[in-house]
Design a protein that fits this description.
- The protein is an all-alpha fold.
- It contains three helices and no strands.
- Helix 1 packs parallel to helix 3.
- The protein is rod-shaped and about 120 Å long.
C-alpha cells in the first residue's frame, strides 16, 4: 500500500514538471508578444488565462502530494531503507521542479518588466495625443477669432 502511495507521489511530481514546462513555454510566448509592437493584448490575455489554468493544476497536484505524504510519512520514516529508491527518485524530481520554478520566476520578472515598458510607452503615446488634440483645439479657436472684430475697435461715428 505504501509503495502505491509513493508511486502516486512520483507520478504527481512528474505531472507537475510537465505542467511547469508548459508554463515556461507560455512565458516565452508572452515575452514574444510583449516585444512586438503593437502588442496583441487579446493573445496576451489568452496566454495569461492558459497560465492561470496550469497554475490551478499545479496547486491541485501539490495538495494531492501533501495529503498523500501525510499518509505515508510515518511509515517511510520508520523504514527508510525499504523505500530508499522511491524517496531518492522523489528528491530528484523535487529538485528538478524547484529549478523550473526558479526559472519561471525569472521569466515572470522579465515579462513584467517588458509589460511595464509597453504600458509606459502607451501612456506616453496617449499624453502626446492629448497634447496634440489640445494644441489643435487652441489653434482652431484662435483661427476662428481672426475674422471677428472686437466691438471696441469699431468706428462709432456713422
Amino acid at each position: 500500500m505504501t509503495e502505491g502511495y509513493l508511486q502516486i507521489m512520483i507520478e504527481s511530481l512528474e505531472k507537475k514538471i510537465v505542467v511547469l514546462d508548459q508554463i515556461m513555454e507560455l512565458n516565452v510566448r508572452q515575452a514574444e508578444l510583449s516585444s512586438h509592437q503593437p502588442m496583441d493584448m487579446e493573445a496576451y490575455d489568452k496566454t495569461m488565462d492558459e497560465k492561470g489554468t496550469l497554475i490551478d493544476e499545479i496547486n491541485k497536484l501539490d495538495d494531492g502530494f501533501t495529503s498523500t505524504y501525510k499518509l505515508v510519512k510515518d511509515i517511510v520514516q520508520q523504514e527508510p531503507e525499504k523505500y530508499r529508491d522511491k524517496v531518492l527518485q522523489m528528491q530528484e524530481l523535487i529538485r528538478v521542479a524547484v529549478e523550473k520554478g526558479v526559472t519561471i520566476e525569472a521569466q515572470e520578472r522579465r515579462n513584467r518588466s517588458a509589460l511595464e515598458t509597453v504600458f509606459r510607452m502607451k501612456r506616453t503615446e496617449i499624453k502626446q495625443v492629448k497634447r496634440s488634440n489640445t494644441a489643435a483645439l487652441q489653434y482652431y479657436k484662435s483661427m476662428s477669432k481672426i475674422n471677428e472684430v472686437d466691438p471696441q475697435l469699431m468706428d462709432k461715428k456713422k
